Amino acid sequence: MDFAFGPEDERFRTRARDWLDEHVAAALAQLAGQPQPQPQPQPGAGHDGPPAPAPAPVPAPAPAHAHRAWERELGADGWIGLGWDRTHGTYGNRPATLTQQVVWAEEYARAGAPARLGHIGENLLAPTLLAHGDDTQRARFLPPIARGEELWCQGYSEPEAGSDLAGVRTRAVRDPGDGTYRVTGQKIWTSLAQEADWCFVLARTEDGSQRHHGLSFLLVPMDQPGRVEVRPIRQLTGDAEFNEVFFDGAVARAEHLIGGAGQGWRVAMGLLAVERGVSTLVQQIGFAQELDRIVRLALRTGAAADPVLRDRLVEQWAELKAMRWNALRTLGEASGPGAPSVAKLLWGGWHQRLGELAVRIRGAAAALGPERWTAERPYELDDAQRLFLFSRADTIYGGSDEIQRNIIAERVLNLPKESRG
User: Fold this and answer.
1) Considering 150, 241, 275, 319, which one is annotated as catalytic?
2) Could you give the C-alpha distances from 343 to 148, 327, 340, 350, 408, in angstroms and in order?
3) Contact 100/82 with Cβ under 8 angstroms?
4) Is 122 inside a domain boundary?
5) Same domain membership, residue 350 and residue 234
6) d(C-alpha 86, C-alpha 82), whole Å
7) Domain Acyl-CoA dehydrogenase/oxidase N-terminal: where (predicted)?
8) Residues 283 and 297 both lie in one domain
9) Tens digits of per-residue pLDDT, 376-420?
């Protein structure tokens, strides 16, 4: 595959880099609750040269209103929804080729720009609506996503149906009076549910249905007091990005059912293919930055002199390069049914090994706690500790390694299906 950046891509890169240089520092200052700095001129490095130094990391947690303001700023200047399929109409996004989308992702990561609150709506729901929604649904939901005004979360996993998504028990019953659906059930590990305005929910709409039959894909508003409850889940890192969400007769309008009643499995699988395909490229850019910090840590502490650790660093670098080119290849051509599962297996294990390597390089200090403790943040972690603890979940969330191997075995290698009796 010839995946090269052409002259137009480099002109697009310049526009993206200039915009980020002008806006990122102020956004980071606002997120940190600090006075906004005056824009500073950046070194004139080209694409082949070193990137401009990234701003310092923002302390967590950052105020949600500042994150929302950043989403609206991105949307106002056309940086949300790059390259959305325009076959069905224009929804306020900027035209961009596939290579230009990659360019934007690279420059966004290099600039150290704020973590996105709107990526679930932009990168998961929007492509799903373009593929499976109707014109009315696209016109209602895509423009607010492109403007950065409405945030989304994903209602898939449940306590008894995590990686095995076909086991969902949440039910949606059609109300014969007004034609709405009443959604009842529990979802778990729901990222950003505490900030989301909407949730796309996989629910069972046919009585007596089992497994992947009788499921529907519904768009449910989160602002329903007494009918939707969000409970944060405290993670090993001390953060609470994930949540439990309880639906108690939550109302979803019939016209907000995507792809038709009983077609939820088809729609959900289409969305997961997007989640584990295109978005992995952006993820890998963040991985590269983490690896670079760990290499610098090894050089600073002298751990790079250890031949075993040095070999491990080289292995991580080589594996990340291979993952990147594999992701680019699957974007540029039709990929088989096992490609998303292969990608998930590769990056989940890679990132977990990176976390283990980080604490080994950190040495005994990796076991030490913070110098100061607060009631709001009972403990603070350094980069190596946070990476190690968070990456423990990489081989579980988004579909466990066991489930991914089953998918490859059954759908690619045509091996007998696993018994679920």
Assistant:
1) 275
2) 29, 8, 5, 11, 11
3) yes
4) no
5) no
6) 11
7) 68-149
8) yes
9) 555 677 788 888 888 888 888 777 888 788 888 888 888 888 766
